[in-house]
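note to self — DONT lose this again. spent like an hour looking for the file last time. sequence + predicted structure for the chain T wanted, 161 res
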Amino acid sequence: MQHTALLTALLLAATRLHAQAATVDPCPFTPAELKAAIGVTFQAGVAGQPIKAGSLTMQSCQYSSSRYSVRVGTTIYAQQADALQHLKVMLAGTKVPIPNDPDGAVFQEGQGDNTDPVVAYARKAVAVEIRILGIFYDDPSSRMATLRTLREKLAKLRRIP
């Protein structure tokens, strides 16, 4: 009887953990959504190979345009606290909170020449990073102004999951 109760408790715990893990489309945006938000025409997203490491799964998708790419990275955890911890330790540089953001989203800054327009947040046990890769500015003197404009546009994208 005790073994049956223990087995039932273990199965319920495993089911609960499995149910907490979100299912996230690695390419959650349409090219039309990205164009509407950013103002540039993108090709359909191309998903990378997912990486599973213990209880987490890392996914990525890249949308290409003639100027630069948008990369969506998601790390799926079993618990929201782990996704929040991910934002604290896995993003280099300085995290600048977006005022009044319901998901506690941040912009990533302070990486010198490697600083790209980035918005990151944790939602439903998933750490999400949306980043523009490539030369996103027309001339070096406009780099920081363009970075600020683009990250504001990224922050207005539909939130996933």
